[in-house]
Amino acid sequence: MCRSVDVRTAVLAKNDGLAAELRAELARRRVTAVNLLSSPGSGKTALLELVLRRARERGQTVAALTADLATENDARRLARSGAPVRQVLTGGLCHLESAQVRALIDDWLPDPTRLLFVENVGNLVCPASYDLGETLRVTLMSVTEGEDKPLKYPTAFGAAHLVVLTKTDIADAVGFDDAAFTTAVERVNPGVEILRTSARTGQGVDTLLDRVLAVAGGVAPHAPLLAAKHLRAHGHDHGPAQDRHHEHDHDHGHGRAPRPTTA
Amino acid sequence: MHELSIAAAVVESAEDVAREHGADAVAGVTLRIGELAGVVPDALRFSFSLVAEGTALDGAELVIEEVPARARCGGCDARFAVGSPPALWCPHCDTAAAELLTGRELELAEVRMAGSP
């Protein structure tokens, strides 16, 4: 016999709660945060450098955080755009958590900043589980990565508000099958928009910026089916669910049927 | 390997629950993990045993209930298994799903305290 407690708490409730507070703080400061997810080498930094530059040319106040395990190389590259940039060194951690973003928002983010781009650690697995208080989650991949990548990493692509294809200037050279890619994205995220971009030719840079500015202006982003509930119901954060502790005694033995979900 | 961070969050939450209930040690915890939660149960088991060492959960049993991903069709309202890799389209009428019903769970469901109540 042992005492057990039903808790039904989200394991990442602490991060989710901090993300909700961060989203509220960003809204108060009129900042729209964009979380960029991709594999290493997909061209996030090159594309972001252009987006930052274009945003400044279009009179927008922008800033960027870029996360890597080591080196400040990406911050240096992004800073060439003239926008304020901070490097986050995760010291080996495979993803960003909202507490890391929060610390920089409090200590560094200049006022006013309309758009804050957060370049996550290059990784399509772990960052997908962590809400960073963003309004827009963008998942990117390059034409060299294989058309079926959205099926291999369904959480990253399925929870995206926007999907961005990069390096389209070499699509023909690498035999990229755009139709197969589109089908794969649609399978895990029906209705999501796919933007085709090239940092070399500048294709799609303005369109990407337009989409981000639209959301900053109040247009609701696409609602991905795989998004965590708090991300899907953008603007309706309620923080971590209150624990409903419920004690009971029972014998060991775990043959119980799974409980119906509360989600 | 964010399973290590997740294991740390599980241990922290379970220690909080144990403390609230005046227990010094936790005999076991049950997690519910959805098919599309992006968490690998085996990696989590491995991480859990490492993170639990020296805490109130040292030696605690980890039970993982895997939750299949199911969606509701936006056309005919049928409920269907999403499968792997997931297809969020109805197998009956080929309409996009309106809602994912289950499959994203990453929940601490139960904490079992050691010792008598």
Automatic annotation (TrEMBL), chain A:
GO molecular function, one term: GTPase activity
GO biological process, one term: protein maturation
Region annotated Disordered, chain positions: 234-263
Domain CobW/HypB/UreG nucleotide-binding: 35-195
Keyword presence, RNA-binding: no
InterPro entries found in the cross-reference section: CobW/HypB/UreG_nucleotide-bd, Hyd_mat_HypB, P-loop_NTPase
Keywords: GTP-binding, Hydrolase, Metal-binding, Nickel, Nucleotide-binding, Zinc
Compositionally biased intervals (Basic and acidic residues): 234-254
Similarity remark: Belongs to the SIMIBI class G3E GTPase family. HypB/HupM subfamily.
PANTHER family cross-referenced by the UniProt entry: HYDROGENASE MATURATION FACTOR HYPB, HYDROGENASE PROTEIN ASSEMBLY PROTEIN, NICKEL CHAPERONE
Record-given protein name: Hydrogenase nickel incorporation protein HypB
Organism name: Streptomyces phyllanthi
Lineage of producing organism: Bacteria, Bacillati, Actinomycetota, Actinomycetes, Kitasatosporales
The gene coding this protein: hypB
UniProtKB/TrEMBL annotation, chain B:
Alphabetical list of Pfam families matching this protein: HypA (PF01155)
Residues reported in the UniProt entry to bind Ni(2+): 2
Protein name: Hydrogenase maturation factor HypA
Similarity comment: family membership: Belongs to the HypA/HybF family.
InterPro entries, alphabetized: Hydgase_Ni_incorp_HypA/HybF_CS, HypA/HybF
GO biological process: protein maturation
Matching PANTHER family: HYDROGENASE MATURATION FACTOR HYPA
Keywords: Metal-binding, Nickel, Zinc
UniProt cross-references to Gene3D superfamilies, sorted A to Z: 3.30.2320.80
Record: residues binding Zn(2+): 73, 76, 90, 93
Task performed by this protein: Involved in the maturation of [NiFe] hydrogenases. Required for nickel insertion into the metal center of the hydrogenase.
Recorded GO MF terms: nickel cation binding; zinc ion binding
